[in-house]
Amino acid sequence: MLRFTRLKFEVRVTDEGKLPRFFGPTLRGALGLTFRKMVCVTHLDDCSPCLLRFQCPYTRFFEPFAPSDHPFFRRIRQMPRPFVLQVTPPSDKPYLLRVGETLSFRIVLWHQIETFLPYTVIAVQKTFERGIGQGLKARLERVTAEVGEDEKVVFEAEEGLVSAKVPSIPIEDVMVTPTRQINRLTVHFLTPTRIDLSGKLQNPITFSSLIKAANERGRALFWAYEQKEPNWNGRGLILAAERVEMVRWEQRWMDLQRFSRRQGEKLKVGGVIGWAEFSDEDLSPFLPLLRLMEWVHVGKLGTMGLGQIIVTA
After folding, report:
1. Which domain CATH number covers 191?
2. pTM of the entire structure?
C-alpha cells in the first residue's frame, strides 16, 4: 500500500557558492549522479540491459523498470519514480549562499521508505560534500520526517542515522472525501507546473486540464505501486471538470532551463506559476485526487521539484 512521508534536509554551507534561482533540476541531477556512483557495480552507460535493474537501488529509485510479470507491464515499462523534490519556489535571481548559512529542501517518498531512507541520506550527504551548483559545498546537519503535525528526527550530523523508522500516512488518509459540499477552491502553483496534454503545454491551466493531468499521474502511481486500477472514476471526474468555471486567476509562464548530461545540451523545463480559483455547485468529489497531487505533484518533472501545488477549499 502506498504510504507517504516528507523528509526535510537541512545543510550548513562550508564553502560559499551559488545555486540557480530554481535549483530543483540542479539538485535532482547531482543526487542522481551521486546515487549511481554509490551503488552501480556494472558501470554500464545504459541501465536498461543491466541484469541488476530490478534489484539495484539506483534504478529502483531513479529509473524504475517494470518486470515482465507486472500486471500493468505494457502500460508502465518505465515506472513513475517513487519520490519528488520540494524546493523553494523560483526567486528573481540565483541564490548566493555564504559560509555558515543554512539551506533546506524536502524529498517526499512513498515506496519502500525505510529501504530508501539511508541511501537518500548518504546521497545528499555526499552530493553537498563534493559540491553542487557554482562552488557550493555544505554539511548535512539534520533530516526530519514530517507528516502533518507528526515530526521525527531521523538523522543528526553528530550521531548519524538515529532512526530507520519514520512516520508516514497511508493513501486512504490522504484521499479523504469531504463530508460537506464545496463550491469554491483555490489551487496555488508553487513551482513551475508543466502539464502537457496531447503534445500541447497548458497555459493557463484550467480545471479540466488540471484534473486530466492529475488523473493520469494518479493512475500511473496506482498501476505501478498498488498494481491495480485506482478507486476513483477518472472518466467521470474529467467530464465533470469541463463544467467547472475558473472565476479568478493569476498565472504566468516561467521559462527555465536545465543542463542534461545525458543529451549534452540545455533543455527547457518551464511551467506555470501562480494561482486559480474555481467554482461549481460541488467540487468535493475532486478533492481526494487533488490532495494526492499535493504529495506527488502534478504534470511533468516532479522529481525536479516542478508541479508542486497547494489546494485551499
Report:
1. 3.30.70.1900
2. 0.95
